[in-house]
Amino acid sequence: MLKKILVSLLVVLFFSQCKSTKISRTITKKIQSDFFENQFTGIYIYDVEADKVLYNLNGEKYFTPASNTKIATLFTGLELLPDSIPAFKYAINQDTIIIKGTGDPTLFHPYFKDSTAFKKIKNFKKVNLIIDNILDKRYGPGWAWEDFDSYFSAERSAFPMYGNVVTVSRQDSLKVFPKVYKKSLNITDGFYGRDEYSNTFYYGENRTKETEIPMIMSDSLIINLWDNIVPNKVSIINQAEINPSTIAYSIPKDSLFKRMMEVSDNFLAEQILILASSTLSDTLSSSNVRKYILENQLKDLKQKPRWVDGSGLSRYNLFSPISFVDILTKMYKKIPEERLFQFFPVGGKSGTLKNWFSGIDKPYIHAKSGTLGNNYNLSGYLVTNSGKVLIFSYMNNHYLHSNSAVKKKMQTTFEWLRDNY
């Protein structure tokens, strides 16, 4: 009997080894073409059920991750934030409410349209805002200065409003959000954007596409925005006799995470880290929360990343494929698959993967892309035809090909894994 068991085990091990060898040879052959010769490529593939690394090429090397960084931001939010987003902290003194910002990005946001703060303050005679409790600068380290009026470079702040952007569109009529800027919006022949040092906005005469233009956030702007809603009620103060400590909550955190990941929203990613820091201290600091997560929940990463922002907009970030697979594995083991997969863009169906990596009868890729000039990365979960879940990170840096050409090469590997493992 013992002999039969040993023989069976040897047979299983033999076929398993043969399958691993086949995977290694097939993928290696795919990336040994001239196409990959002058770029930096890293691939790490892990079978979570078998606890087995199926393929490793430069998995321990550091890459510019771009928006793959949002995977670490998602992990942080899931670990530290409660089920609903802490909108702000407050205290009440007779007819006055004192509010301290927590970094919640959803207030009057063009997508979420949350109005928790408005509902809370409308019945008070006076509102005192504390918004200087943040250490983060308006831009992250390594962000490109020329992107100041690009939708993906909205400023970070302790008390965001309207997503910290002016949203303009034209269908039947011109729509401007917040409305306070409608009369002062400049209509131009074609240019759209903002002056570098002032909240002077432009929109093309024949443009119809909804366009988000970052605002320069300041105390005076926030007062102006509130005066347009509740005139002469809101003031900004540096400190109060009563420390705001009661928390008001806004939307479910999963809604925030899903939006951030699906459309790769940089502003939401940055604010999620700031929000997470509010659970550690009254002083808001994305740097402090990144340090905390790396020293605690991610202390066992095989390669410690250089992690400088929440969005991946900075080229200072450095992550390895192994680190992403480790983080993705931690989430997979802790969070039910149905809930976890909803956060990620789905190949051929949603978000940044809507036009790529589609399945035949059903989706098989649930992953986060990361794109910067000359860089494209994808990390997430691949479900094979046999039902196995593979956790992978496929990173490409410093190429001169088109992004589409790189994605086509990646897709052949993913499809082969889907059909053969």
TrEMBL record:
<dbReference type="GO" id="GO:0009002">
    <property type="term" value="F:serine-type D-Ala-D-Ala carboxypeptidase activity"/>
</dbReference>
<comment type="similarity">
    <text>Belongs to the peptidase S13 family.</text>
</comment>
<dbReference type="GO" id="GO:0006508">
    <property type="term" value="P:proteolysis"/>
</dbReference>
<protein>
    <submittedName>
        <fullName>D-alanyl-D-alanine carboxypeptidase</fullName>
        <ecNumber>3.4.16.4</ecNumber>
    </submittedName>
</protein>
<keyword id="KW-0645">Protease</keyword>
<dbReference type="InterPro" id="IPR000667">
    <property type="entry name" value="Peptidase_S13"/>
</dbReference>
<dbReference type="InterPro" id="IPR012338">
    <property type="entry name" value="Beta-lactam/transpept-like"/>
</dbReference>
<dbReference type="Pfam" id="PF02113">
    <property type="entry name" value="Peptidase_S13"/>
</dbReference>
<keyword id="KW-0121">Carboxypeptidase</keyword>
<dbReference type="GO" id="GO:0000270">
    <property type="term" value="P:peptidoglycan metabolic process"/>
</dbReference>
<keyword id="KW-0378">Hydrolase</keyword>
